Amino acid sequence: MPSTAAPAALRTVTRRATRGDAYGYAEVVTFPVVGMVGGGQLARMTHEAGIPLGIRFRLLSGTPQDSAALAVRDVVVGDHNDLATLRDFARGCDVITFDHEHVPTEHLRALEADGIPVRPGPDALVHAQDKGVMRARLDSLGVGCPRHRIVRDPADVAAFAAEVADADGAGADGAAQDAGFPVPVVLKTVRGGYDGKGVWVVRTAAEAAVPFKAGVPVLAEEKVDFARELAACVVRSPHGQAVAYPVVESVQVGGVCDTVIAPAPGLPDDEAVQAQEMALRIAQELGVVGHMAVELFETPDGRVLVNELAMRPHNSGHWTQDGAVTSQFANHLRAVLDLPLGDPRPRARWTVMANVLGGDYPDMYSAYRHCMARDPQLKIHMYGKDVKPGRKVGHVNTYGDDLADVRERAAHAAGYLRGTITE
Amino acid sequence: MPSTAAPAALRTVTRRATRGDAYGYAEVVTFPVVGMVGGGQLARMTHEAGIPLGIRFRLLSGTPQDSAALAVRDVVVGDHNDLATLRDFARGCDVITFDHEHVPTEHLRALEADGIPVRPGPDALVHAQDKGVMRARLDSLGVGCPRHRIVRDPADVAAFAAEVADADGAGADGAAQDAGFPVPVVLKTVRGGYDGKGVWVVRTAAEAAVPFKAGVPVLAEEKVDFARELAACVVRSPHGQAVAYPVVESVQVGGVCDTVIAPAPGLPDDEAVQAQEMALRIAQELGVVGHMAVELFETPDGRVLVNELAMRPHNSGHWTQDGAVTSQFANHLRAVLDLPLGDPRPRARWTVMANVLGGDYPDMYSAYRHCMARDPQLKIHMYGKDVKPGRKVGHVNTYGDDLADVRERAAHAAGYLRGTITE
Ligand SMILES: Nc1ncnc2c1ncn2[C@@H]1O[C@H](COP(=O)(O)OP(=O)(O)O)[C@@H](O)[C@H]1O
Ligand SMILES: Nc1ncnc2c1ncn2[C@@H]1O[C@H](COP(=O)(O)OP(=O)(O)O)[C@@H](O)[C@H]1O
Ligand SMILES: [Mg+2]
Ligand SMILES: [Mg+2]
């Protein structure tokens, strides 16, 4: 119960610095309110991480039934595309951060002009919102990327394919390919994609026509023949403190993250350190605040190329909830509040995360019970979402000394929950 | 967003088993709603543990500003002593459990009669509510306890003291003690106490008069000259699965838990196993469901005597949040839902919990920032409560291989947050 003796402005959990003259203190700085835009699972898990931190968490959610909205006390239901809604929401907050990249850049600038700290700020966030802006900036920093170009029509794509083939010495071969491009090209809408939506691999002018239909600028990239995908995750605070998590391997199935292995098996130390340093450098150059995932392609000859940037908690960091001293969610909150960051080091030799996708059966509760019985060490993270085929509805984490065992346990649980393993 | 195509009864997150004829399934068992009575920090941390489990958490809180109420979506504000309020609250829940022991036993029986699962049930819970009932039952089970008796007045206490002294052969010595009792006696109100409130050590008839003033029955106990206090925590589910956490040492200062060390340093294996077996046996005999802490006295000659029982998450189990594979909070939820229990084993060689008590300074935010900077591995758990001198407002957990270091880090952070260490 609130103290009746203390003046209201001195209650521990109030926002904003206040004067505490009654006690003779010059200034009392109190526990802040973090506002997160977006009601998905990332916000849900950020709230979970914020409870022990003692901060207040405020949510702007599209509906009252969104994943995070089911678990948070202070929920504003509204549209993140509407500036008036955002302003109303921000009034109760000490800082604004994000569950997704979809808030229009100009709205973020308006909030900043209102004096609300927006973290990451619009100048950083735009590199996670717009793949064209991101590529241009990484080029200027000399960071290795797939060859790329903004394209306007299928003819542009064909020209780009020819150039790539030329540079790779693959021209002759490709020209024989049945009036198709000499090499396949990856096309991406620069904004709005996720989980592979907004990404196409095209081999002909006809196929290349599809992405342009959305009316969004399109980025063409060489199709990298990568050995595997990695992710380097870092967290940076406004005053410049930064930490790097171990580099992980991220296994995608059908454009969706399926499994993450921490640390990436067999990755040479110097390659790992290079990837971490690169991620830290990008965070600094772009002025990132909070968690950033740098999605990477590892080439067969051991180089890394940047695929894309995400400036928020990210699927490739879910393993940290059970596998690191400080989770990505806790560190994201600490960063946006400019608090000292927590130790990012792993707690186990190996940690594996496997996403739980919805299957054909709308209920998971019996499968969930079975998984708990089979593996008492399993860490299940459900998002409270309706099951729809292919939708991310949860994930599991496993950890231990034996990678094969740790992988098997994660894959089994995720498969069983989805219904693809019945045992 | 909720699917508009699926009938409402089939949404994953709804309560109760429902028929799903539209999909042709015989029955869909869905994620349940757990109702917790009491808005304190134990409910707050249980909610935190329930988020990844995907369950819905409903809270009955005395005020909208209670520790848990600040973090939970679904809060009913009301009085747990009022049966109509409890009934209203329970209507939305699949099971009812507790943050404290203060709900009247007859109300719990009424809820059970309404068909609501109450876990732990009233027949078990009464042993944590009433120290007299608890002592009588442990006697009948042959479990070692301090000598004790229900007393009606100071004369009764004097007679009890004489008997204890006699049995200990301390009579002659004590009789010389200035018209006082030959040995000190511990008096406890049988109901309503916590954190040492409701416990007195008395040496004279005048002192012994005080506890009777509350009008509650009083239990007299010999004052055990213990070497230290231990706690054996177990979790049991309705179908009888049970797990035991490592036995911990609990250091009390002024009747309040100050530090918990897991596992209890230097405790011989056979003594630890005996204590665990005793706790498991008590849980079974009493039909406990959920987490139970058995508070113990270790005598100088290596026996253990039961001090009291708590049937809910307990301060001596807070270390499990960061130090065990499955926390007491997650396992309490799994137990009350009759889900398979999680692994109780420790993740680190040593884990230390230190309570953060309020100091004279009403704000903790700057101290909190300092502690994070000093120790990036520190795990802080704040309860969102107003600071009042001596009030439990949070705790910290530390872990590692070197006990002295782990203890120092926990003690430093707790002392710094309280303001007793300024460095
Ligand atoms: N240039 C590329 N070469 C090869 N594969 C690619 C390329 N770009 C994307 N991909 C594949 O498509 C996936 C999704 O692409 P990405 O740009 O990360 O889109 P999203 O924003 O949907 O995550 C990547 O994880 C990778 O598997
Ligand atoms: N019989 C006893 N002998 C010695 N110390 C005792 C005895 N009973 C209680 N104490 C001390 O008082 C503390 C609080 O007593 P307890 O019965 O656990 O009350 P509470 O319900 O407030 O926790 C114990 O942790 C112990 O330190
Ligand atoms: Mg991607
Ligand atoms: Mg006690």
UniProtKB/TrEMBL annotation, chains A, B:
What positions does the domain ATP-grasp occupy? Answer: 135-337
Its recorded reaction(s) are: 5-amino-1-(5-phospho-beta-D-ribosyl)imidazole + hydrogencarbonate + ATP = 5-carboxyamino-1-(5-phospho-D-ribosyl)imidazole + ADP + phosphate + 2 H(+)
Enzyme Commission number: 6.3.4.18
The answer on whether this UniProt entry bears the keyword ATP-binding reads yes
**Which residues does the record give as ATP binding sites?**
131, 188, 221-224, 229, 307-308
Where is it found, in Gene Ontology cellular component terms? cytosol
Looking at the Swiss-Prot or TrEMBL record, what is one Pfam family this protein matches? RS_preATP-grasp-like
Task: Kindly tell me the pathway this chain contributes to.
Answer: Purine metabolism; IMP biosynthesis via de novo pathway; 5-amino-1-(5-phospho-D-ribosyl)imidazole-4-carboxylate from 5-amino-1-(5-phospho-D-ribosyl)imidazole (N5-CAIR route): step 1/2
Which keywords fit this entry according to its UniProt record?
ATP-binding, Ligase, Nucleotide-binding, Purine biosynthesis
DNA-binding as a keyword of this entry, yes or no, is no
InterPro entries registered for this protein in UniProt: ATP-grasp (IPR011761), ATP-grasp_carboxylate-amine (IPR003135), ATP_grasp_subdomain_1 (IPR013815), PreATP-grasp_dom_sf (IPR016185), PurK (IPR005875), PurK_C (IPR040686), PurT/PurK_preATP-grasp (IPR054350), Rudment_hybrid_motif (IPR011054)
The molecular function GO annotations come to: 5-(carboxyamino)imidazole ribonucleotide synthase activity; ATP binding; metal ion binding; phosphoribosylaminoimidazole carboxylase activity
- Which Gene3D superfamilies does the record cross-reference, listed alphabetically? 3.40.50.20, ATP-grasp fold, A domain, ATP-grasp fold, B domain
Give one GO biological process term.
'de novo' IMP biosynthetic process
Q: Which family does it belong to?
A: Belongs to the PurK/PurT family.
What is this protein for, i.e. what is its function? Catalyzes the ATP-dependent conversion of 5-aminoimidazole ribonucleotide (AIR) and HCO(3)(-) to N5-carboxyaminoimidazole ribonucleotide (N5-CAIR).
Give the NCBIfam families listed for this entry: PRK06019.1-5 (NF004679), PRK06019.1-6 (NF004680), purK (TIGR01161)
The subunit structure is: Homodimer.
Could you identify this protein by its name?
A: N5-carboxyaminoimidazole ribonucleotide synthase
Organism of origin is Streptomyces abyssalis
Q: Which gene encodes it?
A: purK
